[in-house]
Design a protein that fits this description.
Layout: H1 2-17, H2 20-26, E1 27-34, E2 41-43, H3 44-49, E3 58-70, E4 73-83, E5 92-104, E6 107-118
Parallel strand pairs: 1-6
Antiparallel strand pairs: 1-2, 3-4, 4-5, 5-6
Helix pairs in contact: 1-2
Length: 119
């Protein structure tokens, strides 16, 4: 569980810092992500390119659950409370997240990401 928590934290640090290289290294080449904006699935390239437009100033991760599926795959569930800059219309957002991680060539990569807004 600690390894996945570290990977999720690295993912959110990359998002916060708009670090395309670090973020891309966590994603599988055939990654697909679905975010709360209703714009449908994003590929790895699309997800990386969207980092520039992000405005996450801080985040809090909690409620981790790990469901091992096989030796080379795991389902990770958690919640994140996102904080946005003071000038943003929305200051906080709570999101429930599920991620499918797979081990490929000895490296754990995020294959699928799904987020749901929590009120």
């Amino acid at each position: 569980m600690e390894m996945f928590q570290a990977k999720v934290k690295a993912e959110w640090e990359a998002v916060k810092n708009k670090d395309k290289k670090a973020y891309g290294e966590l994603l599988a080449d055939d990654y697909q992500g679905v975010e709360v904006d209703g714009k449908g699935e994003r590929t790895k390239v699309q997800a990386i390119n969207e980092l520039e437009a992000g405005n996450v100033s801080n985040y809090t991760l909690w409620g981790y659950k790990l469901i091992p599926l096989a030796p080379d795959s795991a389902f990770v569930i958690y919640e994140v409370t996102l904080q946005f800059p003071p000038k943003s219309v929305v200051h906080y957002s709570r999101v429930y997240i599920t991620e499918l991680w797979v081990k490929r060539a000895g490296q754990w990569k995020e294959l699928h990401y799904q987020e749901t807004h929590v009120k």
